[in-house]
Amino acid sequence: MAITSSGYTFSFDNGDAPGALPATFTTKGNILHATWMMVSAVIFAVVGMTMMSDLHAEPFPESLIPYAPLLIGCGVFLAGLYAALLKIETTIDHGTITIRRRSWFKAREHVMALSDYPGVLRKRVTYNRNKQTHVAWLAALPHDDKSKRVVLGASNDEAEGRKLVEDCARLLDIPALEETADGFQARAPGDLDRSIAELAAAGKIDTTYKTGSAPAELGVERGSDMIVLNFLKAAIPLKLLVVVAGVGAAITVAILLEIIGSDMILVIPAIAAFGIAVFLFLTLGRMKARRQLILRRDRVVIASLSKDGKEPKIGAELMHDEIEGVRIAPAKYGGNALWFDTDRGSFPAGDNAPRAALDYAHSLVIAALATAQEGSETGGDQ
Q: What are the beta bridge partners of residue 300?
């Protein structure tokens, strides 16, 4: 059953990494879903044209209205037919990838060199099934041309998706990739079982951190056994401001129409818009909370300050040896965040903070992890 999201076509039938090379796997269209689409399209077109048949006697252009259901039905029918005929067969050999893609009634073949792909990407996508939104984690070979992208496997579990990416990277002997705000962050196949603290201590990760003053958007407090980073309140993303403004405008228009004596049914969308506005207000309140990142000798603590600004609320505690990646990537509600990748999942810190603050925090975290690792190795040698 093929699912397409964010430019990647995948199937949960391919849930495991290829065991050996050469390997061939096939992704087929969802026949049941495609059949339902085509049947529904025919019913919609017939019923719609029948209900509007009286409009045929009207003058132009009203006489064209009955054909609207037919056009919509044809579009849905063709989409269902495309889904039914879709078939992607991918063969991976040593250094070569062959992609055979059938859509409509013809097949196209692409023969790609493995070196054309930067690595195996862990891609987070969303898709809709049974009126619900689900999240999937893909092990994919990214490419600018969507027809040449390859999905090696998929999972609904974040930890399994990460393991799938690592297994594929080892098998193909290419880097494992994570998305960042500036592109990809790569890890060599031989470094996949090593923590970022080890890699930083070994000099395999560059850091631009230099002692000195932090950006104005970031507060740094240094103690005897910890460093506390305070991400100051950040600006709200423009797209959320637009949504809030749109909802506010809808509420205002509905109220004004009600005041001047329009239909009472306008109260219903006004109440719905008010509920959306309250939800967005609460969401924006969470975004404006003050975030903290506490660097200890053996762990990293992600926290946020409570309303009284005294006791921090712990979001996650990550031991140094389980952190496999630190990167700046898009945050949940817009903007960027500092993400910590582990086998348990990925955890964000400093959501929607200014880029200067995130860059400084990223370099400081890498330097702190390297220093802690060197200290533990020195202590272990004594």
A: 295, 318
Q: What are phi and psi of 10, to 5 degrees?
A: -145, 170
**Structure tokens given for 139:** 């092990």
Which amino acid appears at position 8 of this protein?
A: Y
Contact 65, 55 (CB under 8 A): yes
Render the burial of 44-56: b for 16+ CB within 10 Å, e for the rest.
bbeebbeeeeeee
Kindly report the number of other CB atoms within 10 A of residue 278's CB atom.
11
Closest CA to 99 of 9, 161, 29, 37: 9
Longest dimension (CA), the chain: 97
Q: Digits of tens for pLDDT over the chain (382 positions)? A: 678 888 888 887 665 667 778 888 888 887 888 899 999 999 999 998 888 888 777 787 778 888 889 999 999 999 999 888 888 899 998 889 999 988 777 888 889 999 999 999 999 999 887 778 889 999 999 999 988 999 998 898 888 889 999 999 999 999 999 999 888 999 999 888 888 888 888 888 776 666 667 888 888 888 888 899 988 765 555 556 666 666 666 666 666 666 666 555 555 666 666 666 666 666 555 555 568 899 998 999 998 876 655 677 888 999 999 999 999 999 877 788 999 999 888 999 988 888 888 999 999 999 888 888 876 665 555 4
Collapsed DSSP state (helix, strand, coil) of residue 65: helix
pTM of the model: 0.74
Q: Are strands 96-103 and 299-305 parallel, antiparallel or unpaired?
A: unpaired
Distance CA 141, CA 151 (A): 6
Could you tell me if 90 and 111 are in contact, meaning their C-beta atoms sit under 8 angstroms apart? no
Three-state DSSP at 44 gives helix
- 83 is written with which tokens? 């889904």
Give the list of residues 6+ apart from residue 220 with CB closer than 8 angstroms, or none. Answer: 214, 227, 228, 229, 230, 364
What pairs with residue 124 in β-bridges?
137
Q: Name the residue among 332, 348, 358 with its Cα closest to residue 239.
A: 332
In the chain the first and final C-alpha atoms are separated, in Å, by 58
